Amino acid sequence: MKKQMQGMIYVMLAAVLFGVMPLWAVKVYDNGGNPVFLSFCRFALSLPLLYLLDRKLCPHHERAAPDKKFFLVCITYVLTPSLLFISYTKIASGLATTVHFIYPAIVLLLCRAMFRQSIRPVKYFCCFLCIVGVALFCTVGEQVDGLGLLLALLSAITYAGYVAYLPASHVQETLAPFQLTLRLNLGGVVVLAVLNTLMGTWAFGLTLQGWLYTLLLSWGTAVGATMLFQRGVQLCGAQNAAIFSVLEPLTSVVCGILFLSESCSVQIILGIVLILAAVFLLSICDFRGKRQEDMPA
Questions:
Q1: Number of other residues whose CB lies within 10 A of the CB of residue 67
Q2: In a designed cystine with 27, which of 50, 91, 213, 267 is the match (CB 3.0 to 4.6 A)?
Q3: Is 264 left (phi over 0), alpha (psi -120 to 50) or beta?
Q4: 121-135 vs 266-294: helix crossing angle, rounded to 10
Q5: pLDDT value at position 293?
Q6: In degrees rounded to 5, what are phi and psi of residue 117?
Q7: Taking a C-beta distance cutoff of 8 angstroms, is the pair 11, 241 a contact?
Q8: Of 54-63, 128-137, 171-180, which has the strongest mean pLDDT?
Q9: CA dihedral of 76, 77, 83, 88, whole degrees rounded to 10
Q10: What is the pTM of this model?
């Protein structure tokens, strides 16, 4: 039960870090950046730090060669931001985020259909509450484009594949944490370099302040949040991690209201309440379930 709770906390911390990312992203955009270039830098600037941490903290850990399972994890990990950021050019970011965050439901389906995992009814209910809550963050009347919707949906599918397959692949047992994140982010650098070239979004003319915000965002998300999430998935499982990670858009909305003077409506408040209710309900049910399992017969 202790490991389960630790995993939940790690995932929630990761979600908060990811959710704060738009605050720093706005600063980068104001200093000459753009979403696709920032996504490239997010991966690229993390590589030196991850390499040093790996050599310093895991000097004797065997560095296994990548196998098919790792490449499958890497593909789903790398494709997600690429698809999502392209969708931002087609539809409003709020709508794209809403579509992307149906991925917890897809995770549950994958866990059930592909990995034959049992899923308690309460998780379906919590997942439903989360999706409705995120949907309420979307402003009615935003521009809709079929290709943009498809790309956002594909980003949900690829990220669901990453979350569901990461613990099932056992790559975390063969690679040290820093090694795994280093290799995944290296894959992200390659794909996003190609994407920036094709879209003409290179923005190396950032101001010094812009580069500092970019570095802060990179180390906070591509290193800190990513590793917290990976460890959380390992401890509490893909199903719980998918639902708890919906705290990310909630954090973004709250930060926008508090720090960016964004509007707060009854619709948004209701969305926040539904997501918090889902997280609280799942936490209580999991805690009680584990406590009953630990009780002597």
A1: 11
A2: 213
A3: beta
A4: 160
A5: 43
A6: -85, 145
A7: yes
A8: 128-137
A9: 150
A10: 0.89
